[in-house]
């Protein structure tokens, strides 16, 4: 009787192991795919955060983005996620006065193949600058599409597409030396085609990074909220006593009321 029980138990154990093995071999490990049949406006080359990219979509406020896609999976689709968000400071996020273009769209999917025409309208009074666009598909087994569905978008505000201009009054040199505790003071003249308060975002920014690091820190921000078209102003930064001695890059940036950016100016600074 005991032998019969052990024999039966053994057969059941082997059978269950075979079933588990079959289930494991039968698991769905194949991710779904997205084919972009057409994108309007057409993507092209652009400069994003100082680096060239070849998948940049140009758009203006009030325009529509259209993406015709074919989504497929070997077994069963589940959901499509469309995500658009700002990339103003190379993936820093901040609240601005104009309207950021933000999309978070979750679309349920069924079957093995789905064609979609995705249409999204950009706000007219949009915050100008760089944005990220990503489409991500998940199938019913939880597999997701790889990161080839990632795009950069450059947005222009149609009411003001001209960046501001500035010139540095002082210092006259771009290679500087400071001791910790010194004040780095920059005097500059700024002008724009629209009043500085049009859009509410006009500002001067000073940031820095060590030359052996990619970490950028904000030194100071000065708002330009007036109805003027030009002015002389300045920005200062007291070098912290805690800042490690060495060589740094300081970036002077000027943005107008809708976030159009003038070409930044770079200072090479040694902290002693």
Please give a structural write-up.
By secondary structure, this protein is mostly beta strands. The protein folds into two domains: 33-156, Immunoglobulin-like; 165-271, Coagulation Factor XIII, Chain A, domain 1, CATH 2.70.50.50. Helices cover 9% and strands 50% of the residues. The protein has one helix and 17 strands. The chain has one helix spanning 2-25, and strands spanning 33-40, 44-48, 51-60, 64-72, 77-86, 103-108, 113-121, 129-139, 150-156, 165-170, 175-178, 183-191, 203-210, 217-223, 230-238, 246-255, 265-271. It has a six-stranded mixed beta sheet with strand order 2-3-9-8-5-6, with no helix packed on it. Strand 2 (44-48) and strand 3 form a beta hairpin. The longest helix has 24 residues, at 2-25. The N and C termini lie far apart (89 Å). The model is unreliable at 1-25 (pLDDT under 50).
Radius of gyration: 27 Å
- Tell me the number of helical segments per DSSP (H or I, 4 or more residues long): 1
Query: Which strand-content bin applies to the residues?
Result: over 45%
Number of domains: 2
CATH class bucket of the largest domain? Mainly Beta
Helix content: under 10%
- What's the CATH topology label of the largest domain? Immunoglobulin-like
Uncertain segments of ≥5 residues (pLDDT<50)? Answer: 1-25
Overall mean pLDDT stands at 89
Task: Tell me the total number of β-strands.
Answer: 17
* Main beta-sheet strand count, sense and barrel state: 6 strands, mixed
Helix and strand run? HEEEEEEEEEEEEEEEEE
Overall CATH architecture of the largest domain: Sandwich
Widest sheet: strand order? 2-3-9-8-5-6
SSE-based structural type: mainly beta
Distance between the termini: 89 Å
Overall outline: elongated
């Amino acid at each position: 009787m005991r032998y019969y029980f052990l024999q039966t138990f053994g057969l059941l154990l082997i059978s269950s192991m075979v079933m588990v093995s079959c289930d494991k071999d039968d698991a769905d490990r194949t991710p779904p795919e997205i084919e972009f049949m057409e994108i309007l406006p057409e993507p092209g080359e652009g400069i994003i955060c100082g680096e060239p990219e070849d998948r940049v979509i140009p758009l203006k406020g009030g325009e529509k983005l259209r993406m015709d896609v074919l989504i497929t999976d070997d077994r069963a689709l589940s959901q499509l996620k469309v995500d658009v968000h700002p990339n103003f400071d190379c993936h820093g996020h901040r609240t601005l006065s104009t309207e950021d273009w933000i999309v978070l769209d979750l679309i349920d999917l069924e079957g093995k193949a789905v064609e979609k025409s995705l249409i999204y309208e950009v706000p007219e009074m949009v915050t100008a600058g760089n944005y990220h666009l990503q489409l991500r598909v998940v199938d019913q087994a939880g597999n997701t599409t790889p990161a080839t569905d990632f795009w950069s978008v450059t947005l222009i505000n149609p009411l003001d597409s001209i960046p501001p201009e500035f010139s540095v009054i002082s210092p006259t040199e771009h290679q500087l030396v400071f001791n910790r505790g010194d004040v780095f003071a920059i005097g500059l003249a700024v002008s724009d085609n629209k009043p500085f308060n049009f859009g509410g975002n006009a500002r001067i920014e000073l940031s820095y990074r060590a030359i052996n690091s990619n970490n950028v820190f904000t030194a100071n921000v000065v708002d330009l909220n007036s109805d003027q078209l030009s002015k002389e102003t300045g920005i200062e930064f007291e070098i912290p006593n805690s800042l490690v001695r060495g060589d740094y890059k300081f970036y002077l940036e000027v943005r107008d009321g809708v976030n159009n950016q003038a070409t930044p100016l770079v200072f090479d600074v040694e902290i002693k």
